[in-house]
Amino acid sequence: MTNATVCGIINYIMIKAVLDTNVLVSGLARYENSATYAIVSSVGKKWNICVTPSIYLEYKDVLNRPEIRKITKLSANEIKIALAYIADLAEQFLVYYTWRPNLRDESDNKFIECALVSNADYLITGNKRHFINSELAPYNFQIVSPREFLTEVLR
């Protein structure tokens, strides 16, 4: 078996997850003892991030907001590098249909759509309450907090 074949198999069986923007921001804020920092720094090593164009654009918009730049302490150039890193590592998907699971926050629908189209294993969010009482039961991904993902999945 060649190295390329082994890498392909490992990539195929690697955990796939959708990352809510709030987790990305928290992870980039470099709270080194936090679950979000551990998750963001392990992208591409222990799990693959799944994105759609709308998620990537939200990442870009939010990370460039002045109040978020103060929290993350990232320069404009560091934000460009972080976004390029995400674009390079991410499994990218297109959504050809919209699905409305009756979420509390309609802007979170993009994360559900990505989880569905990518066949993700997890949706990682700091706002699990936004996904309560939605119509997600028949689907095969779990909605987890950063701490749950770190302790139960990445161990």
Question: Can you put this structure into words, describing what you see?
Answer:
The protein has about 160 residues and is of the alpha/beta class. It has a single domain (about 15-155), classed as 5'-nuclease (Rossmann fold, 3-Layer(aba) Sandwich), CATH 3.40.50. It is built from eight helices and five strands, in the order H-E-H-H-E-H-H-H-E-H-E-E-H. A five-stranded parallel β-sheet has the order 3-2-1-4-5, sandwiched between helices. It is globular, with a radius of gyration of 15 Å.
Write the layout of secondary structure elements.
Elements: H1 3-13, E1 15-19, H2 21-28, H3 35-41, E2 47-51, H4 53-63, H5 66-72, H6 76-89, E3 91-92, H7 109-118, E4 122-124, E5 142-144, H8 146-154
Parallel strand pairs: 1-2, 1-4, 2-3, 4-5
Helix pairs in contact: 2-3, 3-8, 4-6
